[in-house]
Amino acid sequence: MAMHVALTFDDNFWAPAYATMRSVCLFSHRRQELVFHLCHRTLTVEHRADLERIREEFPVELRWYDLDQSAMFQDIAKRMPENKRLSNIVYARLMIDRLVAPDVERILYLDCDMLVREDVAFFFNLDLEGNSIAAVRDSIGALITGRRDLKENRDIFDPADYYFNAGMVFIDIAKWREADVIGRMEEAYASGIMQRIYYDQDLLNLVFKGKWLKLPWRWNVIDARHAHDGVDPAILHYTAERKPWGVLAGMLQSVAFARFYRHVMTNELFYRFARHRWKRWWLKKLRLGR
Q1: Domain span at 143
Q2: What is the pLDDT of residues 191-210, one digit of tens each?
Q3: Number of domains, the chain
């Protein structure tokens, strides 16, 4: 049985995407069943070749979706509120049911700032108990929805309701399609709700309220810090500003599994990605200085 895994990223995030994908492979006993759905903005030839190299090590299938060739994604990215930290690539996962082929019945979505260290076969053996998706409760969900003094958007969200982090979502494609996520997004945009909420994650919590299976925290360890090294996390999620690909002195000391992450990305790609990021940082500084 195929195990479908979806990632969304742009050309500046190709190396973390590779690390997430390789970590899935390293910890799977069913590697030949893995199918990666790579939903990406247009990639350079070099960066696409880096990602394709995963097949030299593991017997996996890659399916490519260039979002810059999708009129639907271009329209959504242009109109919806922009997440300046993550870019509008975050909206790509909302389209997942419209991107994948009919043979995909269940799919695991993963953010590319994640490190997997347990077999994802867990998800494909999972009984969703009639729910549309499975996810992990976000420990700061009430702050995300309620913001300052936990008083904002009370007409939209109840802080007493469980709120999931959308960095890892296991999806029943038929039920996702039935929920009409894109249609619900258009309704929220027309009513002004989309302009008030936390992008796609808040929207998914509205769409799937009461229709998601709550998984144990270890399947999406949010803000993965050094203290999490000893509690056997299954999936680490580097949601804070400090990332395992950072190279500044002391930056990695508080990040979980930092050295291991570098070896998962591979040393060669890790340092090439560091040079890529430094170049972008300096170019941005120079442009602002003009």
Answers
A1: 3-289
A2: 999 889 888 999 999 999 99
A3: 1
